[in-house]
Design a protein that fits this description.
single chain, alpha/beta, Udp-n-acetylmuramoylalanyl-d-glutamate--2,6- Diaminopimelate Ligase, Chain: A, domain 1
Length: about 230
């Protein structure tokens, strides 16, 4: 499969053009060889993930958090230089999808979390800069769920979910009638805001709640195109 065909497929599956995102979604680092045989997946475009993908013989690394945000890369120094240099030495392309991989109904972090939690009547919720990226749904009975190796108890009732650093939505979850809000992390102001409206929430880890989309996208790619997939 050609690299541009792969990126076009990701763009279509994730409806990437629909999102107003601070991430520069799509291809962020190209490669000399256009042919793609093996694709690695990870949450972050870190030096460690680039090196692991290269060691695994991947041609492309697909991540949730890339290296090009907003105005793009302005200086190739320090950690950014290390990541780019490692990718170029390995002729490893880098592809990133941020909000599209949070919000996607088929493979997104939040819909995957809703499936993990066995929620019914799942609906979109929680708008970030005009992009609705989270979900709500219902549990008929309390349920234990494992995220990142830790177990959490969800109560019966309406549950709000927004992966990553989405503690700011806890108060909104209260307005939506949620009994619990599940996110990755929250700053102290978010904690106080949630306490002020008596909104219980779970902070299961930014990374831990954003592994689900990459894994689901890897499974979908393998099943539809037959490419080797590694990581995530």
């Amino acid at each position: 499969m050609k690299l541009q065909d792969l990126v076009s497929w990701f763009d279509a599956v994730l409806d990437a053009a629909r999102f107003d995102d601070v991430s520069n979604n799509g291809l962020q680092i190209a490669r000399r060889d256009e042919e793609v045989r093996r694709v690695a997946f990870a949450v972050d475009a870190s030096l460690a993930s680039v090196q692991a993908a290269a060691k695994a013989g991947a041609d492309v690394l697909v991540v949730h958090h890339g290296i090009s945000w907003g105005g793009g890369i302005r200086r190739l120094v320090d950690g950014v230089y290390n990541v780019v240099a490692a990718a170029m030495r390995a002729d490893l392309a880098l592809v990133a999808y941020h909000l599209p991989l949070d919000a996607n109904r088929e493979v997104g972090n939040n819909w995957e979390l809703a499936r993990l939690c066995a929620l019914r009547d799942v609906e979109r919720a929680f708008s970030y800069h005009g992009n609705v990226i989270g979900v709500t749904g219902f549990l008929d009975a309390p349920r234990m769920v494992e995220i990142g190796g830790r177990e959490y108890r969800l109560p019966a009732g309406k549950i709000g979910i927004c992966s990553g650093g989405a503690g700011e939505f806890a108060a909104e979850a209260k307005k939506l009638g949620c009994s619990m809000f599940l996110t990755g992390e929250a700053n102290w102001a978010d904690v106080i805001s949630a306490q002020n409206v008596d909104m219980p929430f779970i902070a299961a880890g930014h990374y831990e709640t954003e592994t689900f989309g990459a894994r689901a996208l890897a499974r979908l790619l393998a099943s539809t195109h037959g490419l080797d997939v590694v990581g995530s």
